[in-house]
Design brief:
Helix content: 25-40%
Largest sheet: 6 strands, mixed
Radius of gyration: 23 Å
Strand order of the largest sheet: 3-2-1-6-7-17
CATH class of the largest domain: Alpha Beta
Number of strands: 17
CATH topology of the largest domain: Nucleotidyltransferase, domain 5
Shape: globular
Strand content: 15-25%
């Protein structure tokens, strides 16, 4: 079928907390839904990343994809190719089960599994960059050079929205208060045992922020010394309505320190900022300056107010420490401004990729999967038997950036920003 007659591919970005769904060549996803689903057989509420058996995961994916295709996209799965934006740390069992559901149950013509970090640089029209994905369960960094991932530079930590939520809940239960209509304030622990995940997320988005490094240093010194007089003047407290007409009072200290879980170094002196420097150290010495000046940040957690400003300040401060000062001679860090919201930057890269002619050359076809029963890793795609001419198998990936620049220019966006 000629390319101009082929229907737009379906683009899926299945995250730990949210799934972005839409069509190739569009500038944003059609819908962003939770990656939590109630299974039709058992009625249990399951997260796609938490499953006990592969059979349970298979049944959950069947129900979940049915909702995606027939409630949100309203298309026949057999008519459209699929682009799946996946993490480089995605378990093989999950991707193989997902492919099995797609090919055998929904009979999609082909699937392209593409690493989300690589797709993120496509949105900018650049060939190289250091991509930080700060999501729900973890922060993951992967360097990209000339459109090829540098796998030895992968760095990951379980620091993301979940860590912030845990910190926020602990502080609210310890220091927060609740008041009702005409009642006096009471400690939260006397009223609530736990706080729902959805409520914590809403409180985080509406009231919390990432403070600057000067105030963070003062707060840390105050905690270490146990002297509250060293604590800087906190921001105003806020009132958050909860069920039953009650009001949750959140003081300024909670609002300011909830997100510090991302930057407070653990026992191994690791944080989101150290991930970047450690990843740069894993890169060849002649690429380190290039990576430092081409940082790409994505993921919903990176949308917190003050995140990027604090990240740059932490990087500059860490360069003064002996373990980095002796090995890195960097002076400048630069963060690219993505043409989309950070929470769906990878999805946008998949939408750009899905609009290119190369999609059919790099995808795993249904016939190939049914013949082999295996899903090769994305870094060994040349081993996949594709139903294409031999001459087309060698289409290089590095040409994609040039095409991406042309697409961005056609949409009125500058590819060099």
């Amino acid at each position: 079928m000629p390319l101009f007659e082929e229907k737009a591919a379906v683009v899926l970005d299945i995250g730990a907390a949210y799934t972005k769904i839409g069509y190739a060549s569009e500038t944003g996803p059609r819908a962003i839904i939770r990656s939590t689903f109630k299974q039709s057989k058992t009625g249990k509420l399951l997260n796609l990343s938490n499953y006990s058996t592969l059979e349970e995961l298979y049944d959950t994916l069947v129900d979940y994809l049915h909702v995606i295709y027939f409630r949100h996209l309203l298309v026949n799965p057999r008519d459209r190719r699929v682009v799946i934006c996946e993490s480089v740390l995605c378990p093989s069992q999950f991707r193989e089960t997902l492919a099995k559901v797609m090919f055998k149950h929904y009979e999609v013509p082909s699937i392209l599994f593409a690493p989300s970090h690589l797709l993120a640089v496509f949105t900018l029209g650049i060939n190289s960059g250091l991509v930080l994905d700060c999501g729900y369960t973890e922060s993951l960094i992967l360097p990209i050079y000339d459109d090829y991932p540098i796998l030895k530079g992968v760095q990951a930590l379980p620091l993301g929205a979940k860590a912030i939520h845990n910190n926020l809940e602990a502080q609210i239960l310890e220091h927060g208060t609740v008041k009702g209509v005409g009642d006096e304030e009471k400690p939260v622990r006397s009223v609530l045992g736990t706080i729902p995940e959805e409520t914590l997320e809403d409180i985080k988005v509406r009231t919390c922020f990432v403070t600057n490094i000067e105030r963070a240093t003062q707060i840390q010194q105050s905690r270490l010394s146990g002297d509250d007089s060293k604590w800087p003047t906190p921001p105003p407290a806020v009132e958050y309505p909860i069920d039953g007409g009650r009001i949750l009072c959140i003081n300024g200290k909670i609002r300011e320190t909830a997100c510090e879980a991302l930057f407070e170094q653990d026992n191994e002196e690791k944080s989101v900022a150290t991930l970047i420097l450690d990843s740069i150290l894993k890169c060849p010495i002649d690429l380190r300056k290039l990576m430092a000046e081409n940082i790409v940040v994505m993921g919903g957690t990176s949308m917190l107010q003050g995140f990027q400003h604090r990240l740059l300040a932490e990087l500059k401060m860490l360069l003064e420490q002996p373990r980095y000062k002796e090995e890195l001679s960097l002076t400048t860090f630069k963060i690219h401004q993505s043409p989309s919201q950070p929470n769906f930057t990878a999805w946008l890269g998949g939408a750009i990729f899905g609009a290119l002619e190369i999609l059919s050359f790099r995808s795993l076809t249904k016939e190939a999967f049914l013949q082999t029963g295996k899903v090769p890793d994305w870094c060994t795609m040349e081993e996949i038997p594709l139903d294409i001419d031999v001459a087309k198998k060698d289409t290089p990936l590095r040409n994609i950036s040039a095409v991406t620049k042309a697409l961005l220019s056609a949409k009125g966006q500058s590819p060099d920003k």
